[in-house]
Design goal:
There is one protein chain. Helices cover 64% and strands 2% of the residues. Strand 3 and strand 4 form a beta hairpin. By secondary structure, it is an all-alpha fold. The protein is globular, with a radius of gyration of 21 Å.
Length: 370
């Protein structure tokens, strides 16, 4: 919105400096700052409001003993993240860019599903929405959006159903899927990413840290995939697909980083607020959508390795217990296993963050290796 208002003014001599607004890099920085300021300023009011409404976290009875003191901590903080993300995106993005609307559609829709789940936990049943219901709702939304992505002209025909393989030149050795198979794959990436973040959201700041790291990495990937600087095609140099218009997603990523960092200010140990499903489902969905839109679906498995490990730990635990009656881990998801082994909560959190940074560097390194 501000982009469309400010940029045309640069034709006036006194306002020529507004030409800076045309650059994605400038608007990305402005989006980061806007989102960060919004989340930091609104945080105290929002937390107080949740307390007044008695919107507090219910702690599972079979969890670690140290978690019982967290009962009653305000939850549904993902609403603050979404507000601080969406507003700067709308302010600084080119609103004619369909990539932006696609990622906003998934993010806000998943946020609404998470909101319904959190609300039901607080007012109706501690179990929230049935898992099958959540999955069906997410799948329906995702199929609709992914169908639009790949059966409209959003992508060039030669890119539409191709998947980039890490470490491999995209143009020389692309992985090509048939349409329906790719749509299924893309849906699995987005829904799986959403549930991966949801599984990880169990300790103070544990999920939001890797989200910040992943969003910052996608900022680089989106900028590289869709930006040409004075005739220099960054995507061509990095041997990644050039996707016209995808550079605008860097602004969304910047807003996501800013909103998440601001939220972490209040979510860091000991947390004053939890994100709830309204946050974890929407942020995971956003990361999955960014992977699909920038053709980094397989790279996401590296970048989001923390989320993958948390999800796999739950799957292995369930399969092992149902087939052998024995548990592989002391408790799943994985972060609870380390807690029960005696690791202090801050130690688990920071070590998972360190792993997330390492995985992000590996994901970026695959670009240069190509």
């Amino acid at each position: 919105m501000l982009y469309h208002l400010l940029y045309p003014l640069h034709v006036h001599h006194a306002l020529r400096w507004l030409n800076l607004v045309r650059y994605v890099s400038t608007r990305t920085i402005l989006a980061i700052l806007t989102a960060l300021i919004l989340s930091l300023v609104l945080g105290p009011w929002f937390i107080d409001r949740l307390r007044r409404l008695q919107i507090g976290e219910t702690i599972r009875t079979d969890g670690p003993e140290t978690h019982k003191k967290k009962a009653g901590t305000p939850t549904m903080g993902g609403t603050l993240i979404l507000f601080s993300l969406v507003i700067p995106t709308l302010l600084w993005c080119d609103l004619t860019n369909r990539f932006v609307w696609v990622v906003l559609a998934i993010t806000t829709s998943y946020g609404l599903i998470g909101f319904l789940d959190d609300y039901r936990k607080l007012r109706v049943s501690k179990k929230g929405l049935p898992g099958r219901t959540k999955l069906i709702l997410q799948t329906l939304v995702t199929v609709g959006v992914v169908g639009y992505i790949f059966y409209s002209n959003l992508f060039d025909v030669d890119l539409r159903f191709r998947v980039a393989i890490p470490l491999v030149d995209f143009y020389k050795h692309p992985l090509v899927m048939i349409g329906p198979l790719y749509v299924l794959f893309a849906v699995l990436v987005i829904v799986g990413s959403s549930h991966g973040v949801n599984m990880t959201d169990g300790l103070d700041g544990l999920a939001i840290g890797p989200v910040i790291i992943a969003a910052g990495t996608f900022l680089i990937l989106a900028y590289g995939a869709g930006t040409v600087i004075k005739g220099f095609n960054i995507a061509e140099y990095l041997k990644i697909p050039y996707i016209y218009g995808a550079g605008e997603l860097a602004i969304f990523c910047g807003a996501l980083v800013g909103a998440s960092v601001g939220f972490l200010w209040y979510n860091t140990y000991p947390a004053q607020i939890f994100m709830g499903d309204v946050g974890s489902l929407s942020l995971g969905g956003a990361l999955g959508t960014l992977a699909v839109l920038t053709k980094n679906e397989l790279t996401l498995f590296i970048l989001g390795g923390v989320f993958v490990a948390e999800t796999v730990s739950v799957m292995l635990q369930v399969v092992s217990f149902k087939t052998t009656g024995k548990r592989i881990f002391k408790m799943a998801p994985l972060h609870h296993h380390f807690e029960l082994k005696g690791w202090a909560e801050p130690k688990v959190i920071v070590r998972f963050w360190i792993i997330a940074v390492m995985l992000a560097l590996i994901a970026l390194a695959t670009l240069k290796v190509r």
